[in-house]
Amino acid sequence: MVLSNFDSLCDRYTNMRVTFKFNLSIHFYEFKQYDIMNTILDMKHTKVTYEMPNCYADFDGKFPFEGIELLKSLELTTVNVPLRFGGKGLGGNTGNRQVLEVLKEVGSYDLSLGRIYEGHINALLLIERFGDGNQKERYFEEAVNGKIFGVWNSEMPTEPLTFNDLNGVFELSGAKVFCSGASNIDRPIVTAEGEKGTRMVIIDMDELRLNEDYTYWRPMGMKSSVSCRFDFSGVNFDQKQILGGPYDYVNEPDFTSGAAR
Hints:
With 261 residues, this protein is an alpha+beta fold. 24% of the residues lie in helices and 20% in strands. It has two domains: 18-144, Acyl-CoA dehydrogenase/oxidase, N-terminal domain (Butyryl-Coa Dehydrogenase, subunit A, domain 1, Orthogonal Bundle); 149-260, Butyryl-CoA Dehydrogenase, subunit A, domain 2 (Beta Barrel). It has five helices and eleven strands. It has a four-stranded mixed beta sheet, covered by helices on one side. Helix 2 (96-109) packs antiparallel against helix 3. The model is unreliable at 1-57 (pLDDT under 50).
């Protein structure tokens, strides 16, 4: 897939209202053998207007709601959801180049939006790679219905995220930092240390009311990714929210490919 350059570039030193056109031109290269067919035909030659209120999103450090809605409208938030679950079926073993092209273009458009979008794509790839049948059915359906996912694995050595098994109910203790998207992310995957090693846990943020702590977030750019610290101490989860096995998050080649994205 090749995406054209945006028609307009934002002059980030003014407060003018600027309209961007998101132009998409789709080419399939040699991917016909993967039977992708019309997975993204509905996006072909699409033009969408995205009006940013202060010319450049990083001025006010607000979450890029308009950008997220744009990605949803173009069905870019489901590019790597498997076809059988209603997505485009790219990523994993098929269409990696196309996914990388999309990420590159979104990042060149708005780095904050790109940072959040990459986390969403990465989380869905982890669910495809390590999720069981029930998890795939639930979370891919949620993605198709507009839920935004993320991956939060950064932490301070003084407060690592851990969990204890309380007779089948698990309880978290500790915190994560640089949680991109903050409370606007519906289903973040966090890494937490348990008795058998580091595990991935899918958190239902719509059930929580956590304090967004921006003590550690003093960026020169990407302010609108609103990457905060969350203290998860006391948050409970069940077995159905544990993704994969011990240390699966750092298994290769998935870990390095996630860093590359």
